[in-house]
Amino acid sequence: MDIRKEIRAILSEVFSEATPSKHFKDRVYNRLTSSVYTRPSFDYSGVEKQIETIKKINFEPEESYAIFLNKFPVTYVSKDPVSGVASVGDEVWAVVRENVITTIFFRNSHQKDVKVKDVDNVLSIKTLYKYYIDSPKNEDGTVDFSMSSIEKKPESSNKKFKLDLPVVNLDNKTWYVDVQNERLIYTKNVKKSISFNDLDEKHLEKVIDLVTL
């Protein structure tokens, strides 16, 4: 089997659900997997898991992000098939604009003090992965992200998740029951709360049964 066709088929399956733009797909196909544009040969599996993590993040659409994905023991030279501009480096980065992965590029690790051009924010995939693991998930398995939330993350402590309050499970979500203030507090995000007045009759009865037992 033609190895290039096989790689294209695998990548097509990887991106079938996804946020990456067509422009990004083209760059993956034409730059990373082609010896014509990228040398030495690049193994896409070195960034596949990182791309999957990015796809699970809902970024602020008005912000742009340069995300460090991985570092390699060799230096790559990758030529853009359209513009002819080459990126060179032992690190690979992704750019997200309007909540879409728009491009990837190589960059030298010794450029850490050189600002990435034309993006609002710079962060690492390790930071994003930790944020994803620690954050409450939406129904589709994604999490909402903003730079302000990640900057506040270190201020959070385990004490906030161990309030001295009874807990109740409603629709597979666990809430603290704050009787004094007549509200529920989400155990995975103590900034999220629901007033007793906003509960439907079924959920309110469950809360009342808990606190009156």
What attributes does this structure have?
213 residues; 6 helices; 11 strands; 2 domains; 29% helix; alpha+beta; 4-stranded antiparallel β-sheet; single chain; 5-stranded mixed β-sheet
Secondary-structure topology with pairs:
Blueprint (H helix, E strand, L loop, with lengths): L2 H12 L7 H11 L5 E2 L5 H11 L1 E2 L5 E16 L6 E12 L2 E8 L13 E4 H10 L8 E2 L2 H6 L14 E4 L2 E6 L4 E4 L6 E3 L5 H12 L1
Parallel strand pairs: 2-7, 3-6
Antiparallel strand pairs: 1-3, 3-4, 4-5, 8-9, 9-10, 10-11
Molecular structure report:
With 213 residues, this protein is of the alpha+beta class. The protein has 2 domains: 152 residues, no CATH class; 55 residues, no CATH class. 29% of the residues lie in helices and 30% in strands. The strands form 3 sheets. Strands 1, 3, 4, 5 and 6 form a 5-stranded mixed β-sheet that branches. It has a 4-stranded antiparallel β-sheet with strand order 8-9-10-11, covered by helices on one side. The protein has a two-stranded parallel ribbon with strand order 2-7. The protein is elongated, with a radius of gyration of 22 Å.
